[in-house]
């Protein structure tokens, strides 16, 4: 591909030079030979999907983590393995995604915390306020120094965080997903401030996975995937689609048929279920109308979505993570309240139903986070295989041990769960086998709707193929499937129709046969918009 | 499969044993600091408890109350709730049982009166347990704070009622109940003469058995443990987390309340201010050492009862507060040893498995 992961031939002292960074947490290799080179006075975007290793790399930079291997140079000085206080002293300022402010203190108190101006050994609050106001004027970061942090909006709190690092003399500013919590006008304000800081000689590293932002604000882009640096691009020479491709990691988009043939799978009933038109209530298994779901900070994470899925159809939702997919699936599963709109399953209104009522109504759910939602890690495989089905496996309130172990034996065999010991805690299984337990439970039962969220995340290749074939088999068996995946190629390979979700809306719905990574990429990054139903 | 069972047993038993050894060593040092021989003191401690019928009876009596409070605390912990209110739930249970016992006619058949009073005790504890449960579910008020505060409120309220309305002159207790007394063990086995041990111990063992059945065999128990381990996953599985918390606090309170039966119906036949005497708080230690498993709780209750009774036996040689220090050491040692000992067990197994 274009560009090489090394600096573009320029030998001047780099603001940040990280080379061959390795960092392992337990079984997870968060960074493997990651590199990052940032020139002084630039806005540098660090992009990659969740779990690509961006945050770990920034923790190494900020001194929170010591790398297992590799070197870190700041302004030409080797500082590998330094501490957070070293990093602060050298002018590195990190603004975390989650604010680290004391809500009961005022803005000025928060900003000077740890290096308070004193007079005669006592805290000089008046000077703190004066200092903060001066800094605020110089940088254009408008804050009111006297207000309590608990009274601030998230945008203001973020400005306080930035001022806090600047007060400590930060010359290199790292911002972790700064726009995730901001409204569009606040984002524009932030860009103005960042440009001003850069013009004043500051260096800025921006972690994000919103590609439109990358294009708008950055000069150079480093793309990470699976712990490695895969691309270093000049923003002026690239397109969002190119970045998206680097993030996702596959160049060729496969259609469902191509991949099925590649895998040697027989797809039966092909002709039965290839309808692309939104169907009416009689023929749609699930129909969602004007769905609004609130996310954190009462934002409209899902902002008026309408779609329907027919029996035997897979609707794939593509989109950069964090555009409301999680909230959408959780609302459909009953785990999050629906703020407004309607949800009908097989013609039956389920909008106000709880999780177990929806399960009983035929909704199966493969959750995106198997460790938090999908499994009880201390429960045995057998018990996990009946989680959510405890009513079916209980007789007069008492769990039916015989049927539970019978069920476990059958599922373990059918879904090839290894090791095949039903009484082993689920936490002892590999990620792929944990996911198989969930798939076995959700797809082994009687269901008509499947909500599959990141069904193959963090799963080995063999398990991916197995899970894909199960999803295809369910489609052939006439189930309606909503698939959400950060893997664009997965969405393209499995879906009959593909919808792109961007900032809480479905911006495009097209038949999979007409979709390609290039066309979808433009909608995913918001460079192209078209309201679809 | 059986090797897996053995592993689980090892993981359940080794940490308390290691903790016991640590406590034993600390005890040696303490005893020696008083210029006494550890061997003599430990021998006395055992002779005064398991060595004679009276002492053993007292151990059984104390273990009975601790079994109830220990079960109450562990049921809460299994649901992810820390019930620090067993002390006041215990007192409330005893109080309501005494109140009913005072009101019942002496002509009612004893067995019916006993059953009614037992139900009353459970009811009294359940109400005190339900309040923090409801506040947690409804307003998110943390159960630790609420149960601690309720301890003060409930105990003070009961004391007020007894002092203002119910007490016998010159005492801090109610009149004796008219019906519902539970027979003492010495009416069957004369050797227990003088000890407070009574048939409530049977109720304690039945309760432990039922608690085990509830937690590990019923659908409600499956859901309760799921909520305690991973509330998000339980919610995903269609479990109402609030409902489980409410049930868990009511049950926990009811079990603690049953503990009041031991003193009120089985021992003194009246409610007395302060009869709980810290058994509710010691129940936390019993639950911890017993690893929140009913069998472990019964064993841990026996252990703490032995220490407590043994403290009296060795009083002549070392201050009985030494035993309290030992209790503290055991609790700390268990709390610290659980993860460590487990890790060692797992490491030692690896080469065998490979």
Summarize the structure.
The complex is a heterodimer of chains A (533) and B (354). Chain A has 533 residues and is an alpha/beta fold. Chain A contains 18 helices and 24 strands.
Descriptive account of the structure:
The complex is a heterodimer of chains A (533) and B (354). Chain A is built from 18 helices and 24 strands. In chain A, helix 8 packs across helix 18 and helix 15 packs parallel to helix 16. Chain A is of the alpha/beta class and 533 residues long. The two termini of chain A are 36 Å apart. In chain B, helix 4 packs antiparallel against helix 5 and helix 8 packs across helix 10. Chain B starts with a helix and ends with a helix. The relative contact order of chain B is 0.20. The model of chain B is unreliable at 350-354 (pLDDT under 50). Chains A and B meet through helix 11, helix 12 and strand 20 of A and helix 8 and helix 9 of B.
Keyphrases for this structure?
heterodimer, A: 533 residues, alpha/beta, six-stranded mixed β-sheet, 24 strands, globular, B: 354 residues, mainly alpha, disordered C terminus
Q: Could you tell me the strand content of chain B as a percent range?
A: under 5%
| Poorly predicted sequence stretches spanning 5 or more consecutive residues of chain A | 1-10, 251-281
Tally the beta strands of chain A: 24
- Terminus-to-terminus distance of chain A: 36 Å
Q: Within the largest sheet of chain A, what's the order of strands?
A: 6-9-10-3-11-12
SSE diagram, text form:
The complex is a heterodimer of chains A (533) and B (354).
Chain A: E1 16-25, E2 28-38, E3 43-47, H1 54-62, E4 69-74, E5 77-78, H2 84-89, E6 92-95, H3 107-112, E7 118-119, E8 122-123, H4 125-139, H5 154-167, E9 172-176, H6 184-199, E10 203-208, H7 211-217, E11 220-225, E12 228-234, H8 240-248, H9 256-262, E13 286-294, E14 300-309, E15 314-318, H10 325-333, E16 340-345, E17 348-349, H11 355-360, E18 363-366, H12 370-374, H13 381-384, E19 394-395, E20 398-399, H14 401-414, H15 431-444, E21 449-453, H16 461-476, E22 480-484, H17 488-494, E23 497-502, E24 505-511, H18 517-524
Parallel strand pairs in A: 3-10, 3-11, 6-9, 9-10, 15-22, 15-23, 18-21, 21-22
Antiparallel strand pairs in A: 1-2, 1-4, 4-5, 7-8, 11-12, 13-14, 13-16, 16-17, 19-20, 23-24
Chain B: H1 2-33, H2 38-47, H3 53-78, H4 86-103, H5 110-139, H6 143-166, H7 200-217, H8 219-229, H9 231-236, H10 241-268, H11 279-289, H12 294-313, H13 321-353
């Amino acid at each position: 591909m274009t560009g090489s992961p090394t600096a573009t031939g320029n030998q001047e002292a780099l603001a940040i030079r990280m080379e061959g960074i390795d960092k392992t947490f337990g079984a997870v290799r968060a960074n493997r030979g990651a590199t990052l080179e940032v020139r002084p006075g630039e806005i540098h975007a660090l992009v990659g999907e969740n779990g690509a290793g961006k945050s770990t790399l920034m923790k190494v930079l900020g001194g929170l983590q010591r790398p297992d291997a590799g070197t870190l140079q700041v302004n030409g000085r080797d500082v590998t393995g330094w501490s957070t206080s070293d990093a602060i002293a050298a002018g590195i300022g990190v603004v975390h995604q989650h604010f680290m402010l004391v809500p009961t203190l005022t803005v000025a108190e928060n900003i000077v915390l740890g290096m308070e101006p004193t007079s005669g050994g006592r805290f000089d609050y008046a000077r703190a306020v004066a200092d903060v106001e001066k800094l605020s004027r110089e940088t254009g970061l408008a804050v009111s120094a006297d207000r309590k942090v608990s009274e601030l909006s998230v945008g203001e709190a973020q400005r306080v965080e930035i001022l806090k690092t600047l007060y400590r003399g930060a010359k290199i500013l790292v911002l972790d997903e700064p726009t995730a919590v901001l409204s569009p006008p606040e984002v524009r304000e932030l860009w103005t401030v960042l440009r001003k800081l850069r013009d004043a000689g500051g260096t800025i590293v921006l972690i994000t996975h919103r590609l439109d932002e990358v294009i708008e604000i950055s000069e150079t882009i480093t793309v990470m995937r699976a712990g490695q640096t895969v691309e270093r691009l000049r923003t002026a020479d690239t397109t969002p689609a190119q970045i998206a491709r680097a993030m996702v990691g596959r160049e060729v988009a496969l259609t469902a048929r191509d991949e099925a043939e590649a895998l040697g799978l027989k797809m039966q009933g092909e002709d039965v279920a290839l309808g692309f038109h939104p169907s009416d209530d009689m023929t749609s298994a699930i129909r969602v109308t004007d769905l609004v779901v609130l996310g954190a900070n009462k934002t409209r994470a899902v902002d008026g979505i309408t779609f329907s899925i027919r029996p035997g159809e897979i609707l794939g939702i593509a989109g950069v993570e964090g555009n409301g997919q999680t909230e959408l699936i959780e609302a459909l599963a009953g785990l999050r309240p629906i703020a407004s709109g309607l949800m009908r399953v097989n013609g039956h209104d389920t909008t106000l139903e709880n999780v177990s009522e929806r399960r009983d109504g035929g909704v199966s759910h493969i959750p995106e986070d198997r460790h938090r939602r999908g499994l009880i890690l201390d429960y045995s495989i057998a018990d996990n295989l009946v989680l959510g089905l405890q009513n079916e496996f209980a007789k007069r309130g008492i769990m039916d041990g015989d049927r539970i172990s019978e069920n476990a034996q059958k599922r373990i065999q059918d879904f090839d769960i290894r090791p095949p010991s039903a009484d082993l805690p689920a936490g002892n299984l590999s990620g792929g086998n944990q996911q198989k337990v969930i798939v076995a439970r959700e797809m082994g039962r009687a269901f008509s709707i499947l909500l599959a969220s990141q069904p193959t995340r963090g799963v080995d290749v063999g398990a991916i193929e197995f899970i894909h074939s199960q999803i295809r088999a369910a489609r052939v068996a006439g189930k309606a499937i909503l698939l959400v995946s950060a893997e664009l190629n997965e969405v393209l390979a499995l879906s009959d129709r593909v919808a792109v979700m961007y900032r809480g809306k479905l911006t495009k719905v097209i038949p999979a046969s007409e979709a390609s990574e290039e066309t979808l990429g433009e909608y995913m990054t918001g460079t192209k918009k078209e309201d679809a139903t | 499969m059986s090797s897996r069972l053995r592993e689980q047993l090892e993981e359940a038993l080794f940490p308390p044993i290691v903790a016991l050894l640590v406590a034993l060593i600390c005890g040696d040092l303490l005893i020696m600091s008083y210029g006494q021989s550890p061997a003599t003191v430990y021998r006395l401690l055992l002779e005064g408890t398991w060595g004679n019928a009276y002492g053993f009876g007292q151990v059984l009596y104390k273990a009975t109350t601790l079994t109830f409070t220990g079960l109450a605390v562990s049921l809460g912990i299994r649901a992810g709730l820390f019930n620090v209110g067993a002390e006041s739930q215990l007192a409330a249970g005893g109080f309501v049982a005494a109140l009913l016992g005072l009101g019942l006619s002496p002509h009612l058949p004893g067995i019916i009166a006993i059953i009614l009073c037992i139900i009353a005790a459970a009811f009294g504890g359940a109400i005190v347990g339900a309040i923090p449960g409801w506040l947690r579910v409804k307003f998110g008020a943390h159960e630790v704070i609420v149960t601690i505060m309720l301890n003060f409120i409930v105990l003070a309220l009961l004391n007020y009622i007894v002092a203002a309305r119910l007490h016998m002159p010159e005492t801090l207790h109610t009149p004796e109940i008219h019906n519902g007394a539970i027979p003492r063990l010495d009416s069957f086995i004369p050797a227990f003469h003088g000890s407070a041990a009574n048939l409530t111990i049977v109720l304690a063992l039945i309760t432990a058995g039922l608690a085990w059945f509830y937690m590990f065999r019923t659908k409600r128990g499956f859901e309760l443990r799921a909520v305690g381990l991973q509330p998000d996953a339980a919610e995903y599985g269609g479990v109402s987390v609030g409902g489980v918390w409410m049930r868990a606090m009511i049950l926990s309170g009811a079990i603690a309340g049953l503990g009041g039966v031991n003193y009120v119906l089985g021992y003194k036949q009246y409610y007395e201010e302060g009869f709980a005497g810290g058994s509710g708080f010691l129940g936390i230690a019993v639950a911890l050492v017993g690893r929140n498993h009913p069998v472990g709780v019964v064993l841990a209750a026996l252990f703490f009862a032995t220490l407590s009774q043994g403290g009296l036996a060795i009083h002549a040689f070392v201050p009985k507060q030494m035993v309290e220090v030992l209790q503290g050491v055991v609790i700390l040692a268990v709390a610290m040893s659980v993860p460590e000992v487990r890790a060692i067990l797992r490491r030692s197994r690896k080469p065998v498995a490979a």
